[in-house]
Structures are given as C-alpha cells and as structure tokens.
Amino acid sequence: MRAWLLHEPERDAEFASLVSEAATREGAQQDFQTVAILGFGADAGILGAAQIEVLKKGLRRQAGREVVIDGLPVAFCSDAVGILGMALGTKAVADADVTGRVVKWASKFLKNSYDTERAKDWQRSLFAAADQQLGSSLNLSFPKSAATADVRTALVARGLIESGGDHQAAEDDAQALRLAIREPQNELNCNRAALRLAAVESVIGAATPSSGERKAARAAKRAVSSPIETCRYTTSLAGSASALLRTPRL
C-alpha cells in the first residue's frame, strides 16, 4: 500500500517487481493478499494485458470464497487495506461479470466489517472507499472525525474521494499536520503510518514550502526502506509540518 500511496520514484521498481511476482501465482497461491496487490497495481496502471487477465481470474476466485467459516468471519473480511485493493482492481478491469461477482461477494460482509466495534475509523474510511469504488451499493459513509483527517487527505490526493470543498480540505490538511506533530507515531501500525505519511506529503507538496523544508522531506523519505521505517518516518516530518501550520494558507 505504501508504494501505491506515495508514488516514490525509488520505490516504483520495488512495487513493480512485487506486482509482477504476484501475477505469476496460480491456484491456491493466488490468495487474497496476492489479488489485492494486483488490484493496487491495476489502479496504478502498471499491469500488462496478460496480468490483467490474471487479476480477473483472481477476483473471480476470491469472489467465490466463503466469508464465514464455523460461524466466524474469515480474516480477510476485516482487512481494510486488502479489501480496498480488491475494489480498486475490480474497478480498473471494468469487467461487468467480475464486478457483479465481487459486489455480490462484498455485500455479504463489508457492512458488518464496517459496523463492528473492533473496526477503527481509519479502517472504516477504507471500507467506505472500497464501497465507493464498487458503486456505493452499501452506501457506507466516510467518518468525519478529526482523527481521520489525514486519511481523508490521503484519499483525496489519490483521487478516491472528493475534497468536500476548499474549506473542508484546508481544515483536513491542517488537522493532518497536527496529528503528525502531536500523536506518538510509534503507536501507528504500518498501514496507518503510510496513510498519514501520504497526507503530510500531499500538504507539503501543495503548500510549496521553502527549499529547506523540501530538503528535509526528501531526506526523511530516503530513510524509509522497510515497513518499520515507514512507521518511524512521520515523526521526522514533524518540523516541516509545524512550519506549514504557521503559514497563512492554513
């Protein structure tokens, strides 16, 4: 998800390699995570014609899976990142048969996954984004809490949702920076950290900061070389975020 969110030049080759390897898997090896990776790759526009066919096959396969076993939801039902990848892949292939199957499959569990007490608002945001990619048949709403301002900013930057107007966008941008400064970043899991990182980078890019701030941001990005380092990365942006909060734009 990190490479898909951030469009890091130094990560593009790694992302393409991951997607390419996923496209070679068949049968039981073509699991939920594999199809989700292909879905992110399809949305990024890096799949060839043959890989698109592999994705279609994987989507059909996943849409045929049971969502409850022995009375309990299967683990993938709560995987908000993976579900978003599946939805993005479904929209990207634009195949009526595949879309129909995936929408029917998702309707069996997606609202329950969204409504469960265990789900956090950032996960609900991704579930709602997935529903939107699939045609909004469940009409899942995006959480409006201040705690998910960075998620909204990241999803707007990726073109998955509308900004809600200039005022709302500015409020979310400012709040995303406050979250990056004030919250302990080491308490975020890697997917949550990637979303925050994408939001902060989006605000930095839109605010056209000074060359010193750009240099600091580039240096911090070079430090990211693993999922764990991604979780650490947002802390290193606190200085730039603090400076941006003081600009007239926000």
Descriptive report:
The chain is an all-alpha fold. It has two domains: 1-143, no CATH class; 145-250, no CATH class. The protein has 14 helices and two strands, in the order H-H-H-H-E-E-H-H-H-H-H-H-H-H-H-H. The chain has helices at residues 2-6, 9-22, 32-44, 49-63, 80-93, 96-106, 110-115, 121-133, 149-157, 166-182, 190-207, 211-222, 227-236, 238-245; strands at residues 68-69, 72-73. Strands 1-2 form a two-stranded antiparallel sheet. A hairpin with a 2-residue loop joins strand 1 and strand 2 (72-73). Helix 3 crosses helix 4. The protein is globular. Mean pLDDT is 84; it is low at 216-228 and 230-238.
Q: What structural category characterises the helix and strand content?
A: mainly alpha
Order of helices and strands: HHHHEEHHHHHHHHHH
**Order of strands in the sheet with the most strands?**
1-2
Unreliable stretches covering 5 or more consecutive residues: 216-228, 230-238
* Count of strand segments: 2
Question: What count of helical segments does DSSP give?
Answer: 14
The rounded Rg comes to 18 Å
Shape: globular
How is the main sheet built? 2 strands, antiparallel
CA-to-CA gap between the ends? 28 Å
Q: Percent of residues in beta strands? A: under 5%
Number of domains: 2
Mean pLDDT: 84
Task: Give the fraction of residues assigned to helices.
Answer: 55-70%
